[in-house]
Recover the amino acids of this structure.
């Protein structure tokens, strides 16, 4: 009965956002520009490919060139939602309904993760779930135009599958579920690279934070014998790792030249940090001794092999299969166009002027709302209040959350001529193909909710601090909220006999009900389109066969 409250709240919210009780929802398509046409076209391509058993990696957007899916997001994980609905509904309504079902599925799965696996109370689970899907950073008018941004709602179902397989009884069913969850997790990359890469980025941050605070992955894994290492040996090892990472970064980026606080910073020669890394390794071998280092490495390898379980291997096998699908469809396109044009990225950087600390959230804000950033900041302040008596490890986790929040907050900004994205992140593999840095906020909002849930799980003996966190969440829900209806839903004229709407001309705003026109004929006609470069697409293939 309690769970029904989530259904009432979430469906009421989504029905208003999608305007499902209005006649327009059932007579026209979602969005009013060419991007929604193209996304609907991609989903219709999946329906066509599955119904005719044709090549799904060759949509005819650059006909007759083949394997062109790599020049756009594939939306492969939307297909299981779209195809069944497409059997009963027109493509426009199937697209709108499938997006609604994707979002509702993500909401329910997130609630199940919080309630069942993290064992939060009903109020805490409901509060965090509503805080997530009601955030203007997550559901806003842009997902009606670029629905790939709603891919963040695919992460909770995948996370739920991973947790179900991890908690399941040993057997084939458990391993099959683990392999499936690993496969779906890496399919996020071909589905929408931004969402997939940023999801794995935050998962990596969670892992690094856990290992740095706890000192190990789990109680069953091998722990490095740091107690036998001297302070000097640890410092030399850290210097070797840092210099080696910087050398690798310079090799991939070609160097860094920027100006910070009026100081010119330049680093272009990778050989200098590489020599420093080699020198640190030599000093470490001299300090530690070759025989003891060999024993440490041998022990680490043996314990790592013993620590790998059948569940881990099944998860890795599924992830490998998903990665193979991604590379098969996207490696050729990436090899040809490894990054967007410089001006495309510069157009997305938000230039801001900082007037002082008192107006930091107002002066430097690049997102629809800053309530999650404010929430993390306040939780960090409360963690250091002496009367709550928060333990050291929990405070370290809160500091990690605060540091990541600051990083996300400044990612899309340029202040005083300096941009951390232009100076650093755009040279990092993976980040280099992201044209809009603000896309990070979708996954950040989910990461904040999961981090908050993990924090509440650790604080079972601190009811006052838990109540304070829940009170802050409730206050932000009341004081900082905004609900956007998804676009004008005026995608009209697309089913005219001449296919003008699909051809990319801006449609009129005259409402036009779907007709009985042969959708397959329109799908084939769309192969004559001029190549359209969308926010998720690369340049067209440099082939003489390209239209």
């Amino acid at each position: 009965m309690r769970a029904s409250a989530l259904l009432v709240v979430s469906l009421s919210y989504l029905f208003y956002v999608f305007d499902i009780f209005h006649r327009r929802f059932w007579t026209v398509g979602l969005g009013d520009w060419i991007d929604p046409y193209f996304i609907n076209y991609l989903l219709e391509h999946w329906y066509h490919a599955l119904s005719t058993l044709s090549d799904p990696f060759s949509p005819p957007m650059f006909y007759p060139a083949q394997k062109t899916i790599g020049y756009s997001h594939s939306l492969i994980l939307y297909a299981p939602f779209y195809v069944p609905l497409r059997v009963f509904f027109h493509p426009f309504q199937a697209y709108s309904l499938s997006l609604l079902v994707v979002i509702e599925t993500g909401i329910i799965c997130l609630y199940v993760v919080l309630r069942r696996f993290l064992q939060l109370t009903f109020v805490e689970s409901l509060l965090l779930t509503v805080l997530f899907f009601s955030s203007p950073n997550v559901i806003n008018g842009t997902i009606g135009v670029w629905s790939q941004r709603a891919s963040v709602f695919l992460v909770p179902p995948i996370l739920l599958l991973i947790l179900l397989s991890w908690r399941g009884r040993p057997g084939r069913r458990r391993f099959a579920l683990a392999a499936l969850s690993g496969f779906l997790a890496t399919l996020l990359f071909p589905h929408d690279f931004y969402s997939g890469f940023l999801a794995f980025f935050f998962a990596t941050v969670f892992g690094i934070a856990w290992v740095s605070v706890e000192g190990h992955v789990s109680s069953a894994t091998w722990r490095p014998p740091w107690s036998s290492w001297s302070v000097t040996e640890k410092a030399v090892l850290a210097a070797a790792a840092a210099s080696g990472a910087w050398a690798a970064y310079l090799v991939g980026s070609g160097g860094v030249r920027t100006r910070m606080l009026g100081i010119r910073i330049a680093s272009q020669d990778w050989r200098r940090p590489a020599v420093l890394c080699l020198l640190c390794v030599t000093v470490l071998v001299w300090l530690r001794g070759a025989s003891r280092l060999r024993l440490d490495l041998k022990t680490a390898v043996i314990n790592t092999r013993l620590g790998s379980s059948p569940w881990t291997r099944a998860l890795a096998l599924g992830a490998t299969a998903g990665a193979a699908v991604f590379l098969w469809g996207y490696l050729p396109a990436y090899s040809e166009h490894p990054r967007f044009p410089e001006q495309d990225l510069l157009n997305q950087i938000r230039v801001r002027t900082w007037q002082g600390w008192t107006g930091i959230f107002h002066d430097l804000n690049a997102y629809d709302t800053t309530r999650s950033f404010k929430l993390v900041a306040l939780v960090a302040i409360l963690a250091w209040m002496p009367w709550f008596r928060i333990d050291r490890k929990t405070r370290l986790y809160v500091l990690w959350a605060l540091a990541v929040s600051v990083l996300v907050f400044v990612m899309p900004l340029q202040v005083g001529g300096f941009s951390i994205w232009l100076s650093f992140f755009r040279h990092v593999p993976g980040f280099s193909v992201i044209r809009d840095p603000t896309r990070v906020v979708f996954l950040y909002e989910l990461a904040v909710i999961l981090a908050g849930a993990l924090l509440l799980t650790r604080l079972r003996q601190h009811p006052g601090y838990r109540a304070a966190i829940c009170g802050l969440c409730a206050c932000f829900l009341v004081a900082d909220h905004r609900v956007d209806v998804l676009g004008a839903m005026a995608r009209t004229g697309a089913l005219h006999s001449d296919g003008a709407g699909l051809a990319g001309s801006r449609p009129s705003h005259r409402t036009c009900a779907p007709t009985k026109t042969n959708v397959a004929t329109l799908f084939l006609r769309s192969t004559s389109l001029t190549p359209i470069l969308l926010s998720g697409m690369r340049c067209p293939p440099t082939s003489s066969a390209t239209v």
About this structure: Residues 226-288 form one domain. Residues 91-117 form the longest helix (27 residues).
